[in-house]
Amino acid sequence: MEQKIFRDFLGQRGLKLTRERMSVLREVFSFHDHFEPENLYMRIRESGLKASRASVYRTLSLLVESGLVRKAMRTERGNVYEHRFGHGHHDHMICDSCGEIIEFYSEKLENIQDEICDSNKFKGVSHTLEIRGICEKCRK
Amino acid sequence: MEQKIFRDFLGQRGLKLTRERMSVLREVFSFHDHFEPENLYMRIRESGLKASRASVYRTLSLLVESGLVRKAMRTERGNVYEHRFGHGHHDHMICDSCGEIIEFYSEKLENIQDEICDSNKFKGVSHTLEIRGICEKCRK
DNA sequence: GAGTTAATTGAAATTTAATCTCAATTTCAG
DNA sequence: CTGAAATTGAGATTAAATTTCAATTAACTC
């Protein structure tokens, strides 16, 4: 499924389907949550697959270009990614106290953004909205 | 004006008002656009003021805590800041082709975000919305 | 299959933003 | 003024991400 997409993507660009790239792809899709490159690298090594740190970073870029993965946000320390398997567009709320990430999606919000783009004659392609605050648990 | 605010802020925390901090403050407010720490540091040196890179970074953090400056966004290469002098809250549209940054503000958008927070029992404190796409000029 | 070639890999070096260290300096309350 | 405590700066350090380059490998051709 995602393999076919990636394979096609590589094919179109004359890139090769290597063992390392497959390892990264597989590991990215084996886990349904946000992840950081370093951590992905660790998981790959632990599960006995192989791919150097350099390959992990390089493959991650390809995955983003292919649309299979998106850069979800940039934290103080590096990027956070997420794959897009049955994972439509959404935005994030981040608790400043415990770090929890809550995903949400609002049609209204999307529509208003479209309106705003129109009224600025801007062709919106993507967006990132990050709301920071305190989650329910931490408020108690 | 911003000096008074900063002075009070420092006072409340038992921090000192140093020449270096004043240099940073002054330079930050002398220019009404987004800026990066490195370039702020350069501007300070060029205008004959003094403050080491370390002090620039340290002061910038204080300015953010005091509310005089906000971290506008995180780019691939570091943070982008902006001061808040007659500069209410707003979000950004960034042209992927020419890099232009368009600021906008929408009451509707703010309201919907509040609704979303409420329905998630999340206490929203701040947010960043960044819409990427192509601006009017570049579309031609 | 074997041969060819361009893409890929990995370990280590490099880059770059940002933070930290610590001796010397400066602020400011009394 | 004086002294205690905060601050400074040059350079070291950290950490994410990228680059280097010789060795390896995928995949196309015959």
Q: Can you list the strand order of the major beta sheet of chain A?
A: 4-3-5
- For the termini of chain A, the CA-CA separation is 44 Å
Number of strands of chain A: 5
Class of secondary structure makeup of chain A: alpha+beta
Global mean pLDDT of chain A: 95
Oligomer type: homodimer
Q: Helical segment tally of chain A?
A: 6
Give, in order, the helices and strands of chain A: HHHHEEEEHEH
Unreliable runs of chain A:
none
Helix content of chain A: 40-55%
Major pleated sheet of chain A: 3 strands, mixed
Biggest interface, chains and residues, is: A-B, 31 and 31 residues
Classify the beta-strand content of chain A into a percent band.
Answer: 15-25%
Specify Rg of chain A, calculated over alpha carbons.
Answer: 17 Å
Mass-distribution shape of chain A? globular
Structure explained in plain terms:
Two copies of one chain form a homodimer. In chain A, helix 2 (19-29) packs across helix 3 and helix 3 (37-46) crosses helix 4 (53-66). In chain A, strand 3 (91-95) and strand 4 (101-104) form a beta hairpin. The first copy, chain A, has helices at residues 2-13, 19-29, 37-46, 53-66, 107-119, 136-139, and strands at 69-75, 78-83, 91-95, 101-104, 123-134. Helices cover 46% and strands 24% of the residues of chain A. With 140 residues, chain A is of the alpha+beta class. The N and C termini of chain A lie far apart (44 Å). The interface between A and B is medium-sized, with 31 and 31 residues. Strand 5 (123-134) of chain A pairs antiparallel with strand 5 (123-134) of chain B.
